Amino acid sequence: MCHVPSANETANNQTPTPPSIHLAFPGVQDGQIIVTDLPSEKRIATIPEPKDIKTGMVMAIRLDYTHERHLTIIGGYESGHASVWRRNPSSQYWERIYTYQAHSQPILSLDLAISLGSFFTSSADAVIAGHPLSSADGETKVIQTRHAGQQGLTIRSDRKIFATAGWDGKGRVYSAKTMKDLAVLKWHQEGCYALAFAETDLGESHENGQIPYTGLVKRGMTVSEQRTSAAKSTHWLAVGSKDGKISLWNIY
């Protein structure tokens, strides 16, 4: 799901339009991706299965707009392939601009960072992969972590790190730049299957160009207000497990 840039943000169209959302989901056929506009419920894209490979089911989808307002759709498949699709502005046809099979098992999760020009995938195997947004933008980086079954891959809003939830009951944090593992979060007694980063209330290095938060405390704030301000500016990470518990972590 992604928010659509409004028409009044476009230089050649000054007429404001109601905000809308694009929602992507697997189609009836294997490898097919459907994109629908909400609230109009209009189908805006039908992405077919790649013709030259057998992908199986769509396991994960991510979509977002580039800085040039080009809608980019990424699909992760049962075969372990990942593909990037983008609409050709002149023909209006959807073109597959990247495909790579980094995994031997089905892709479980993926996330996209437009500002980094890349996206990351995790799988039922022990591989974490970093992909360019097109074949011309760089090489795919594959890391063998030796920890099978990492899912829920999520990139933090400042694009510095990403994290995964592991079937072995551990959350793992990686550098988005080097893909090196930075932290292992050990607490749960059973497998972890979901995680989420908190969005801070204060400005940070988002892809929309906001100014980073400096951590300065305003004069006259009470101790309670300072604690509240610190909590709102902390990059909390929540990890959910099969044990029915959610752990909360303060990641640097």
TrEMBL record:
Signal peptide region: none
PANTHER family per UniProt: GUANINE NUCLEOTIDE-BINDING PROTEIN SUBUNIT BETA-LIKE PROTEIN 1, TRANSDUCIN BETA-LIKE 3
InterPro entries named among the record's database cross-references: WD40/YVTN_repeat-like_dom_sf (IPR015943), WD40_repeat_dom_sf (IPR036322), WD40_rpt (IPR001680)
Similarity-based family: Belongs to the WD repeat ASA1 family.
SMART domains: WD40
The protein's role, per its UniProt record: Component of the ASTRA complex involved in chromatin remodeling.
Entry protein name: ASTRA-associated protein 1
Assembly and interaction partners: Component of the ASTRA chromatin remodeling machinery complex.
UniProt keyword terms in alphabetical order: Repeat, WD repeat
Stored Pfam families: WD40
WD repeat residue intervals: 237-252
